[in-house]
Each structure stands twice: as structure tokens, then as C-alpha cells.
Amino acid sequence: MGKFTKVAAMVVTSALILGACGKADLSVEKKVEAQSDKEAAVEVFAPHKGLNQKPTPIKIDRISEHEVNIEITAQITDIEINKGEMYKAWTFNGEAPGPVVVVNQGDKINFTLKNMDPSIPHSMDMHAVHAAPSTDFANVMPDHTGTFSYPADNPGVFMYHCGTKPVLAHIANGMHGMIIVKPKDGYPTDSQVTREYALVQNEWYKYNNLEDFTNGVPKYVVFSAKALKNGDPNTNGAVGSLVDKPLLAKVGDRVRLYVDNVGPNEVSSFHVVGTVFDDVYIDGNPFNHMKGIQTLLLPASGGAVVEFTVTKEGSYPIVTHQFNHATKGAVAVLKVTKDGHDDGSAVMSH
Ligand SMILES: [Cu+2]
Fold it and tell me: Which position has the higher pLDDT, 32 or 305?
């Protein structure tokens, strides 16, 4: 066992002890150590065994013009990451990535994290806000609830994630998502947009394996669609899910994608085959306006608004142009038909 693995195992073990709110569970500790001897936690944590918490809908309540209450759960839920392959994910609301959050620039966010995990603390780091991480992104203990308030003054497309140590494990196990802060004065191209989707890129590794998270390469790199409104596609990050059930558009649509690469480790070279991005707003800020972009670099956590026009019927693969990652699953398809409905024609992907 490498030095790092030992340290990692200690961190994980102490998180479990802490997680039990002072009630040290030696059987759990032994279990984790036993796992570490082979390979860091290749099995499900003992307290998570048999646990599959039903997805809980996110609660977003606007309580006044510039104030919104948001409640998100931390929970352990089985996620299908490839056909027939389940991952006992650490999630927000039972989705991985978590549900997309949309607020307005200038909102005060009253954020509640309900930690339904019986064994591990979790927390929420919102990239969209100015906050004091040590208090505003503080750990919420197992079976506890924490509430935090902060302003969302910057418009954009941001990542949110669990910030509990080891952060890499919490993100790689599924605790990530996207928050959109709508600009006060909109985007200059708002009136041209006829269709929009929210897309997230993330990676999956060997199950709960900090050594692999740290030194390995992703097993899968995937896209998911997160619903902006009722009826929109809403998927987990799974190989092929947006190829089997492509996103739809109609000829002539000006498509806007809110995109974020939640990593945890890799960058994305975001590209839509068969088109050029007419307009891009880096990190979703209207000030960061670029035109004529073929491939957009999204750093780990980075987001953007991208817009393009589809001029012909057909299947438009959405990829990261790092094709080793596309081959590992990072392909979605935008199917363009005459009327925007699925005409049942075969989908061409990469
Ligand atoms: Cu967490």
C-alpha cells in the first residue's frame, strides 16, 4: 500500500468516525481499513451497504423579488453510469450530477442542506457566490440540516459541489452540479434563442477509490442533461443516455446550451459537430462575449453559455474533442428535424 493510500485511508476513516457524531463505530473503522489494505475502499462503505435513498425533489421557493430559499439533500442513491452498471453514488437529491439551480443576479440565497447520509458529513460549495468557506460552506453532520445565506451577485454558469474532505472523493463519487445566475440585463442574444438545454460533463472512476481518483484515468467521461423546466430531459451522467434519447431541435433553431464541466479532474474541449458557436459567454457572464468559436475550453468547474444555429436536418454529435474522453462516453446527440419532434430516424454518433 502506497504512502498516499495510507493517508487517504486515515482521512476516510476519521471522516467516518466524525460522521457517527462521536459514536465511534469500530466495525466500520475495521471494515474501511480492511478495504484499504487491498485497494482504497473498492467496496461500498459499510453504512452505505443496502442503502439506496429515493431521489428527493429539490425545493426552490422564491420568497420575495430578490430572495430565494433552496433546499438540497445529500443522499446515497444508486445511479446507472453505463448500461446495467450501477454506482452507489454520493449525490445531491439522488441525481449525479445534481439538479440544475437557477436564480437571478442580485438574489439572496437562503440555502439549506439536509444531510440524509447516515455516516458522512457533507457540505455545499457554490461557486456562484461570495462567502466565507469555513462558515458558509461548513460541514453538515449525518442526519442533520444546515442553513446558510449568501448573495448571488455575479451572473453566470457555475459549478456547485460538496466541499467536505477529501473533496476529490466527494466530487468523484457524484456530489456536483450546475447553478445558473441569470444576468440582470440578460444576454445581448436573448431574443434570438429558440431552444435551450443545460448540459454537464463529469467523470466516473473505480468505485469510491481515492487512489484511482487521484492517480488513475477516468473510466467514463459523460454528459447529462439537467431540466431547466418541467418536461425537459433530465438525466444522470451515464454513457450513451443522450445518444439513445437525443436532445431535439428543429431546422433553423438558434440553440443555447448552458454547459459546465464539473470534472473532477479533466478539462473539456467542448464542441458540437457540424456547427460553429456563433456566440459564447465564458462562465456565462455577458461581459465575456466571444464569437465564432469552434471548440470551447472548459476548465474543471468552468461553465459557459454557447449558442449556435442548426441549418439542416440531421444528428449533431456534442463531444469533448479530447477523443479519448469521447470514446469513454462523452458524446451526446442533438437531433435536428423539420418540426423539432423525433422522427425516428437513426442517430449518427461518434
Ligand atoms: Cu459530500
Answer: 305
